[in-house]
Design goal:
This protein has five helices and no strands. By secondary structure, the chain is mainly α. It folds into two domains: 40 residues, no CATH class; 54 residues. The longest helix has 33 residues. The chain is flat and about 75 Å long. The two termini are 36 Å apart. The mean pLDDT is 86.
Length: 133
């Protein structure tokens, strides 16, 4: 028997947000000390300790993994639109509006969309052929 995606093998299993025993033990060990550790880290940071400053900044304002794009992607409804959108991404990357990584990510999204469009068109053609038979 294979597992179905998104279907739990144990529907009465642990609820989301419930900690494991290990996590609860670790938290209990540091529960009384966490305030002291945080205060010491702040003290070191105020004294100019670069590593302490990095730790605090990493928690307060973590590095973003991406940025919102100010790029209007043309709407994609059929295979011809995919090509138009892809050309828009290439133009934006070549002019510096998008980074190469951003253009690559958008191209990947467009590729997935193109596959979905092909699948939909194939399904429509198959239904038309079946209707003829």
């Amino acid at each position: 028997m294979t597992f179905m995606p998104g279907v739990s093998g144990n529907p009465r299993g642990r609820r989301p947000g419930v900690r494991t025993r290990k996590a609860a033990l670790v938290e209990a060990l540091f529960d009384d000390e966490i305030q002291a550790v945080g205060n010491k880290c702040l003290e070191l940071a105020k004294d100019g300790d670069i590593e302490a400053i990095k730790v605090i900044l990493a928690r307060v304002c973590p590095v973003r993994r991406g940025r919102p794009l100010r790029f209007k992607l043309p709407s994609v409804n059929d295979a011809g639109d995919v090509l138009t959108a892809f050309n828009a991404v290439l133009r934006a990357a070549s002019s510096g509006i998008l980074t190469v990584e951003e253009a690559q990510s958008l191209s990947s999204v467009l590729e997935s969309g193109a596959r979905l469009i092909q699948l939909s068109e194939f399904e429509d053609r198959l239904e038309a052929l079946e209707a003829r038979l």
